[in-house]
Amino acid sequence: MVFWRNGQSTALWDDRGGVTVFVAVCVMALIGIIGVAVDGGSTMRAIERADYVAGEAARAGGQAIDPAEAISGDAIVVDPQDAQAAAQAYLRSAGTTGTVSVSGDGKTLSVHVTGTYDTKFLSVVGIGSLSVSGQGRATLLHGVTVPEGN
Hints:
- It is a single chain.
- The protein is α+β, with helices and mostly antiparallel strands.
- It has one domain (16-139).
- It has three helices and five strands.
- A hairpin with a 5-residue loop joins β3 and β4.
- α1 (18-62) runs antiparallel to α3 (80-94).
């Protein structure tokens, strides 16, 4: 419908304010994308830290060599209780929790760390935290059996 006023036409339903709605929708979408990028990147950092802590805990446990086996020269293996205690102590000092296991031959320690990352932006849509986990393994090696370079 067009109205005539002093030789000019104005539409009854004009487009004034249409750009405002478009800009508002685009800004909300941009904030959402930024939020996913921030929380996604921070979650990846939390996973990397969990892997790092698990690896360091496994190395700490790997220092608990069984002295009876080492002195006699029979084998270089860890004392399972001391190794688990050392790895758990490292996990506590790092402020994380996890599980520690020692292989049957006493030469490999495996550590699994679990935790959560509290989201910054995704909490707006109901995702308050994300689960993260990390793995670490330490294997005891002793002696050189093959000359280097051959």
